[in-house]
Amino acid sequence: MPKHPDVVYVNHEVLGEILRKYVSKSGWVDYSGLKRDKEAMENLDAYVRDLSALNPSTLEDPQDKLASWLNLYDAMVMREILKYYPIENLLKIPDYYGAKRFKVGDKTYSLMEVEELVFHQELQEPRTIFARVIGSSSGARMLQVPFDARKIDKQLEERVQAFLSDPNNVQYNPKQRTLALNPTLLWYEREFVDVRAKARWG
Question: Whole-prediction pTM value?
Fold first, then answer.
């Protein structure tokens, strides 16, 4: 039998070095420290530029495609916030979600379009709502490691569990019979219903 060559996945170590250095265990990004680190800033710019030129949608392996899009999305969000940092509210960034600022391959996207056209329509992976970082305090937390094609399913399951087990995101008051939910679950209600139907915990 012919031996099949091992799959070669996109290398995200450049992003990994930045995450390990500037993301806390609780998932908060040290934007102040990162912005002062000229080499890290140059590496982040190069990572976004190179991966955007490669275009994750052209990758054949579905896990490689998913991991690469998640890493690129998070890196683009970090890079966009750093352009305006210090900033206390994302609403102060002009049309943060809607402006077409991100060229990937031959197409220019807004963050909203990446979420709809890529994660929802192309990849059809609702668990990414608990993994991709939008930059707000109510959104998913950044990992200290990049998403890895070889263990992306495990990483996504962990992101779902971490988000839903956080009392800041889901709180039930049995006496008042009320359920308080993180706004993310309302913003992405369609995807959340899909997750609930698939997940082991639902």
Answer: 0.85
> Side-chain half-sphere of 37: how many Cα atoms within 13 Å?
16
Backbone angles phi, psi at 178, to 5 degrees: -120, 150
Instruction: Sketch the domain layout of the chain as residue ranges.
Output: 13-198
Per-residue pLDDT of 60-113, as tens digits, reads 999 999 999 999 999 999 999 999 998 878 888 889 989 999 999 999 999 999
Tell me the C-alpha distance between 188 and 186, whole Å. Answer: 5
Q: Which has the closest alpha carbon to 105: 69, 64, 158?
A: 69
Which residues, including other chains, have CB under 8 Å from residue 155's CB and lie 6 or more apart?
A: 131, 143, 147, 148
- Token representation of residue 172: 């039930």
Average pLDDT of every residue of the chain: 86
Both ends of the chain: CA-CA distance in Å?
Answer: 43
Are 29 and 80 contacting, i.e. CB atoms less than 8 angstroms apart? Answer: no
CB 10 within 8 A of CB 59: yes
| Of 147, 187, 181, 144, nearest in space to 166 by CA | 181
Distance (Å, whole) CA 35 – CA 33:
6
